Amino acid sequence: MTSNFMPAGGSVARLIDAFSRLPGIGPKTAQRLTYHLIRASSEESELLAKSLLEMRDRLQFCSLCHNISESTICPICANTNRDQGLLCVVEEPLDLFVIERASVYQGLYHVLHGVISPMNGVGPEDLKIQELIDRVKDGKISEVLVATNLSLEGDATAMYLHDAIDPLGVRTTRLAGGLPSGGDLEYADEVTLSRALEGRREL
């Protein structure tokens, strides 16, 4: 007999299952989160539920960079004090957040929402690559900094972007200087990320 009572169905089981579907949340963590909410005050549970619904209602994608935003144009794209000629290309919105948290970059961004991965059936047409090319063609961008992860897919995507952008006469660079091969950008600390940005190399 197990020492932990696990309901076979109902709202508790459904919540445990919902938590376990989140990235990085295993079955035991899902159970702990669920039973924390059971013991929590109704105000705490209502705040969580309200925040989730509010997020779903308000969030959209920025029409320029495709980052998560609560407005048609996100605050970063709307900030005229940022370097309008430098464009950092990232895989996911979380990567953008990591770079912003390091406070070492003052240019603009473009979110691809993935990487080219033939094994997973993801091609260039499935990403925000054409939108990136259109932005570069506008003539305001002088450098495209490719900050995809240092993985096979990330490197392949970086080379694809270089080949697409190079004929447009715009400099294309890649993060360097300390990021571990095969490592995701989201796990880089501020110092490592700062060095990688400062030591970026030509593609």
The total strand number stands at 7
* CATH-defined architecture of the largest domain: 3-Layer(aba) Sandwich
Low-confidence stretches: none
CATH class of the largest domain: Alpha Beta
Overall mean pLDDT stands at 87
Bulk shape: elongated
* Percentage of β-strand residues: 5-15%
Strand order of the largest sheet: 4-3-5-6-7
Helix content: 40-55%
User: Into how many domains do the coordinates divide?
Assistant: 2
Give the H and E element order.
HHHEEHEHEHEHEHE
Give structural notes.
- The protein is α/β, with parallel strands linked by helices.
- It has two domains: 10-58, RecR Domain 1 (Helicase, Ruva Protein, domain 3), CATH 1.10.8; 68-202, Dna Topoisomerase Vi A Subunit, Chain: A, domain 2.
- 43% of the residues lie in helices and 13% in strands.
- The protein has eight helices and seven strands.
- It has helices spanning 10-20, 27-39, 42-58, 75-78, 93-102, 129-137, 152-165, 190-198, and strands spanning 60-61, 68-69, 83-90, 107-111, 143-146, 171-174, 201-202.
- A five-stranded mixed sheet has the order 4-3-5-6-7. It has a two-stranded antiparallel ribbon with strand order 1-2.
- Helix 1 crosses helix 2 and helix 5 packs across helix 8.
- The chain is elongated.
- The mean pLDDT is 87.
